[in-house]
Amino acid sequence: MSRVVRFLALSAFAAFGVITITPSADAAPKCKARISAKGTGQGILGAGTMNAKVAAIEAFEGNAAKTYGRPYGKFDNAKGAKFDCRSGTLKATCVVTARPCK
């Protein structure tokens, strides 16, 4: 069967509702309200900021799990993450805000 004939057949089935493709409700991430967490780190040449970001992420995961339950405590699933970092001579501070999702 040629590609055109297959395409037309699939189009006809879809038009008459023979083929229904609906996204699963479980497939969509379930996100909660935006929360923030703060972390500090020490180091030079950007290491302080990197350490502060890691500390902020760890604090975010803890806050999210405590507030919304363990399934929401994974930063990799969070949506819309934004970092605000400030660095001094040897110390940096970062605040991360994001929507925890499971």
What would you note in describing this structure?
The chain has 102 residues and is α+β, with helices and mostly antiparallel strands. 34% of the residues lie in helices and 25% in strands. It contains two helices and three strands. It has helices at 3-15, 47-68, and strands at residues 35-42, 79-87, 91-99. A three-stranded antiparallel beta sheet has the order 1-3-2. The longest helix is centred in the middle third of the chain and has 22 residues, at 47-68. The relative contact order is 0.21. Residues 1-22 have low confidence and may be disordered.
Task: Lay out the secondary structure.
Blueprint: H1 3-15, E1 35-42, H2 47-68, E2 79-87, E3 91-99
Antiparallel strand pairs: 1-3, 2-3
Q: Which structural traits does this protein have?
A:
102 residues, three-stranded antiparallel β-sheet, single chain, 2 helices, elongated, alpha+beta
Largest sheet: 3 strands, antiparallel
As laid out across the biggest beta sheet, the strand order is: 1-3-2
Q: In percent, how helical is the residue content?
A: 25-40%
Span of the ends, CA to CA: 43 Å
Order of helices and strands: HEHEE
Residue ranges: pLDDT <50 for 5 or more in a row? 1-22
Q: Structural class of the helices, strands and pairings?
A: alpha+beta
Overall average residue pLDDT = 82
Quick one: how many beta strands?
Answer: 3
Q: How would you describe the shape?
A: elongated
The total of helices stands at: 2
Radius of gyration from the CA trace?
23 Å
Beta fraction: 25-35%
Offer a quick outline of the entry.
With 102 residues, the chain is of the alpha+beta class. Helices cover 34% and strands 25% of the residues. It has a three-stranded antiparallel beta sheet with strand order 1-3-2.
